[in-house]
Amino acid sequence: MTWAELYFDLVFVFAITQVSALLHHDHSWAGCLRALIVFVPIYWVWVGTSIQSNLNDMNQPLSRLAIFAVALGGLFLALSVPHAYEDWGLLFACAYWASRLVLGARLFLAPRLVLNPYTVSMLITGPLLVVGALLDGNARVAVWLIAAVLDLSTPTLFRARLQAMHFDAEHLAERFGLFVLIAIGESVVAIGAPVAAQSELEAWTLIAVATAFALSTGLWWVYFHFATDAMRHALATATVQLNVTRHVLSYGHVAFIASIIAVSVGMTDAVNHPTSPMDHGVAALLYGGCAVYLATFGYTRWMMFRQVATTRLTAAGVVLVLLPVAFLVDAVAALALLAVVVAGVNLVEYRIVVRRTAAAAGSAA
């Protein structure tokens, strides 16, 4: 991974913060949909850039200039998120379209323009976002939703055309892992920022901060202790790398990152009001986001190895069963309950690995 890529990622730290703030402002079902719709173009710009940086030498000056131009587009995307459904919709749409044009610019040098995810975003979804920005209310939401679904569907629509692509498995897995880390970093900001703004600190607030941080650490452990190596191995050994890239990286990580954002919103509310029950919508985001995060590992593991992630799917079910309890207890207790479940997943998986390692060593002896 190059320094240029890491600099590029700084923009998306801000972008994730902006999406999280939008969802915190309105966490109704409609608000969740609107937050997801603006998240997809941001995510798709990042994915497109990461694929390009995997296939091209990012140490070349022109490649660096291109990635910095996309970063500027990403910055404009992030700036416009809070008002994307109001007066800044056109800025949001044009920033996305310009970013995708930069990413696909080299395609215009080819003898003929071939349909792929880049050309679709340049010729169809980018203009669709602009059209949507010229509309108001539900019409804008509907057009932008169509554009988001179309963008996400392109790796599947063109899978036959793209399956010969070859990726650097270690680099690409690392890139997507870094985006997950950015999202988890946003959860740390969500824990600390509201408390730092308070003039007085109470013991329950500090307990809530510690509990929320334990939950954030547990989410990190679930992904980075085992899953990231599994993804790297699956990509490196796949006969058709596109299958792993499409299902596990492009699609799986939409769910991973969106769910972490949802959890972050719940954490913010919990540390702000630790001794009061959470709003039902916020509690649903906290527990629902955690359940989706854990369940997504079931999807990715099946797509990689055709194996069932029993422990994580069971834990996702437990989280959903416990959701009604979160409506009744104080926020700090709801946080603690969730942190215990996630810690339990990590402990059970650790014991399974230790037991299997010991059994393998005994068989070898």
Give a verbal description of the structure:
With about 375 residues, the chain is mainly α. It is about 80% helix and about 0% strand. It is built from 13 helices and no strands. It has helices at about 5-25, 30-55, 60-80, 90-105, 115-135, 135-155, 160, 170-195, 205-235, 240-270, 280-305, 310-330, 330-365. Helix 4 (about 90-105) runs antiparallel to helix 5, helix 8 packs parallel to helix 10 and helix 9 runs parallel beside helix 13. The protein starts with a helix and ends with a helix. The model has no long low-confidence stretch (mean pLDDT about 90).
Mean pLDDT: 90
Strand segment count: 0
Please report which band the strand proportion falls in: under 5%, 5-15%, 15-25%, 25-35%, 35-45% or over 45%.
under 5%
The secondary-structure class comes to mainly alpha
- Rounded to an integer, what's the Rg over CA atoms? 21 Å
What distance separates the N and C termini? 40 Å
Helix content: over 70%
What is the H/E string?
HHHHHHHHHHHHH
Contiguous helical run count: 13
Question: How can the largest sheet be summarized?
Answer: none
Low-confidence regions: none
Topology (elements, then pairings):
Blueprint: H1 3-25, H2 29-55, H3 61-80, H4 89-103, H5 117-133, H6 137-157, H7 159-162, H8 169-196, H9 203-237, H10 241-272, H11 280-305, H12 310-328, H13 331-364
Helix pairs in contact: 1-2, 1-3, 1-8, 1-10, 2-3, 2-4, 2-6, 2-8, 3-4, 4-5, 5-6, 8-9, 8-10, 9-10, 9-11, 9-13, 10-11, 10-13, 11-12, 12-13
Search tags:
mainly alpha, single chain, about 375 residues, 13 helices, about 80% helix
